[in-house]
Amino acid sequence: MTNDELKFVVSEWVAGVEFPENKQYLEVLFPAESLHKLAKLLKETSETDFDYLFCLSGVDYGKQFAVVYHLESTTLKHELVLKVKTDDRTNPNFDTVCGIWRTAEWFEREVFDLYGIKFNNHPDLRRLFLPEDWVGYPLRKDFKDELNIIER
Amino acid sequence: MEEVFQDVIIKNSDDYIINMGPQHPSTHGVLRFELCLKGEIVKYIIPHCGYIHRGIEKMCEKDTYQQIIHLTDRFDYLSAHINNEAVSIAVENALEVEVPERVKYIRTIIAELNRIASHQLWWCAFGMDLGALTTFFYGLRDRERILDIFEESFGSRLIHSVNCPGGLMYDIHPNFQQKIKDFIKYFRKVLPEYDQLLTDNVIFQVRSKGMGVMSKADAISYGVTGPCGRGSGFSCDVRKNHPYSAYSKVDFKEILFTEGDTFARYKVRIEEMWESMKILEQLVDNIPEGNYTAKMKPIIKLPVGEFFQRVETARGELGVFIVSDGNKTPLRVKFRTPNFSNLFIINKIASGNKIADLVAISGSLDLVIPDIDR
User: Fold this and answer.
1) Cα B322 → chain centroid
2) Which residues of chain A have pLDDT under 50?
């Protein structure tokens, strides 16, 4: 599918979609409540067939948290970037996609570990790298680095 | 919206649990497996990582783009050059800088040398995992020749940081091309020895064929790339699918096997060494004249935006995701490292086997632990 066709399909499926400027990929910014629905449709519809999630990253823009999903179809060779944002800094949460792409389970655990973003319905949401008793989420912009671990 | 997750581990209170690692030699680094055993059979495997987590992504947020290079070669240190290439190309594409052809050729040559060196080290360690000590000496003997080429041109052997945004730090040594030609001549002669020593060994074949079978659908869903994914028939070679540097100018084959077992993953890597030598032969005599770096400003500021670059390291697909707010340091750098995704399929493919086979299967995934933890 070309980018224009993908744009059309995605705006048919969910409401409130925006397409921010991105030189490399087609990027879709949409309300977080339709995340699971859109992801499932993109994976299971044979015309889109996004079966390969090659990157899942959390981003802290200062005021907002975002989770970015980089998708590719191994059969149809097209790519798409999904982005969801939240203003909630005390209890940010999104739906999990790890039932759709299995690799997301550990990517989401990493995002939870370093950003404190919770993923609803995740089967095993524990810290991945840091110890269980660690306080705080180091990749947040407002993380206080009192032990000078990172500042040099 | 409750989903039924298949292959999610269910623990029982009377499970017999032992730890493998974090100092176990066959995990090739500080990785801990929590194994649930029934006799000698492994019921499930929970990997615990983070023992070598250095917070490289956080450190990158404080560093300029030139400084990031010196952090990226420390996650997958066996394909250090290719990691640096990913960041360099991402920055160059964001700035819309066209690097000289000479740089692209040299980068591709070093990347392929790096890939051969990495596969050699994997081969010797894999043989040792299965009890064949001789492979270790054969592999290291040949790898030494590649490291000597690196040392002569760039001054260091493992992590030479010769790539930088814009091109290379230094030009190649006058002996560089001749040394590579000598190496290829030598390695074409000794690579069949690898087959005689290990591939054709009956004990080795019995222990690897049909072990740890990974289906193509699982490889895609778990994001298993590189030789592990290609051993299951998942065509994931970034060099072919999204060519960068000089890969669009060379003729090479993407190695695909469909068996998906330990032996298929082994064969992919052996065949890839032959393909890498083919790529080297096509490039080594044709390095164009010119400058070894593009003209770059001393302070690099990326335009506001998000940039992604995918490259193929010796272990799979590396993605670099840079979010820039226009400053000289990035707002966020995310590394999608190949081993991170390759590791977590281990419960799926190795549970139900014996502990000794777990060693063979995790060896065939070619894990480099700093690449998982970053």
Assistant:
1) 20
2) none
Would you say the ipTM is above 0.90? no
* Residue B84 within a domain: yes
Q: What is the 3-state secondary structure (H, E, C) of B103-115?
A: HHHHHHHHHHHHH
Pick the CATH number of A3-89 from 3.40.50.620, 1.20.120.340, 3.40.50.2300, 3.30.460.80: 3.30.460.80
Q: Do A55 and B319 touch (CB under 8 A)?
A: yes
Spatial distance between the Cα atoms of B335 and B339, rounded to a whole number of angstroms: 11
Q: What is the CATH number of the domain that holds B303?
A: 1.10.645.10
Does residue B2 have a pLDDT over 60?
A: no
Tokens of A105: 């389970």
Q: Is residue B6 part of a domain?
A: no
In chain B, residues with a C-beta closer than 8 Å to the C-beta of A53 are 223
Judging contacts by C-beta atoms under 8 Å, the chain A residues touching residue B9 are 124
Give contacts of A 1-20 with B, CB under 8 A: none
Chains A and B form CB pairs within 8 A to the count of 97
The predicted-structure confidence for B68-121, as pLDDT tens digits, reads as follows: 888 888 888 888 889 999 999 999 998 888 899 899 999 999 999 999 999 999
Centre a 10 Å sphere on the Cβ of residue B269 and count the other Cβ atoms it contains: 24
Contact A102 B218 (CB under 8 A): yes
Q: How many domains does chain B have?
A: 1
Question: Is B10 inside a domain boundary?
Answer: no
pLDDT band at B7 (very low <50, low <70, confident <90, very high): low
Residues of the domain holding B287: 16-373
Domain ranges for chain A, please list them. 3-89
Residue of A nearest to B306 (CA): A22
> What residue spans of B195-304 are helical by DSSP H?
202-208, 216-221, 226-230, 238-241, 262-284
pLDDT digits (tens, 9 = 90+) for B349-358: 888 888 888 8
Whether residue B24 is contained in a domain is answered as yes
